[in-house]
Amino acid sequence: MPRPASCRPNGTSQEALQYEIEELKQKDLALDQETAQFLSEGYSLEELEQHISLLLHEYNDIKDAGQMLLGKLAVIRGVTTNQLCPEYYDLELSD
C-alpha cells in the first residue's frame, strides 16, 4: 500500500507519484466493481455504508486498544512510544 504524502521522503520523483496515482485509480476501479457486485446481489448502498461504518468503528476500537498497550509498554520500559515502535516492533506511529 502506498505511503501517505506525509510519510514519503522529500524529493519523490514525478514518475513515482504518477505510478502511485495509477495504483490509486486501479484501486478505485476495483472498489467500484465490488460495490456494483454487492448492489447486483441485492444489497442497498445504505446497508453497505452501515456495514463499513461498523467495521471502521471496530477497527478504531482495536487500534485504540493497541495504542494504549504500546503506551503502557513504553512506560514500563522507560522509553517514549516514538522510541518503542521502530526499535522493538518495526512499526511507524502512523500504522
H and E string: HHH
Strand runs, count: 0
Number of domains in the coordinates? 2
Q: Please state the overall shape, judged from the principal axes of the Cα atoms.
A: flat
Helical stretch tally: 3
Q: Which runs of at least 5 residues are low in confidence (pLDDT < 50)?
A: none
Termini distance?
12 Å
**What percentage of amino acids are in beta strands?**
under 5%
Summary tags:
95 residues, mainly alpha
Please, could you describe this protein's structure?
- With 95 residues, the protein is mainly α.
- The protein has two domains: 12-43; 44-95, no CATH class.
- The protein has helices spanning 14-40, 45-77, 81-89.
- The model has no long low-confidence stretch (mean pLDDT 83).
Q: How are the elements arranged and paired?
A:
Layout lengths: L13 H27 L4 H33 L3 H9 L6
Helix pairs in contact: 2-3
Summarize the structure.
By secondary structure, this protein is mainly alpha-helical. It is built from three helices and no strands.
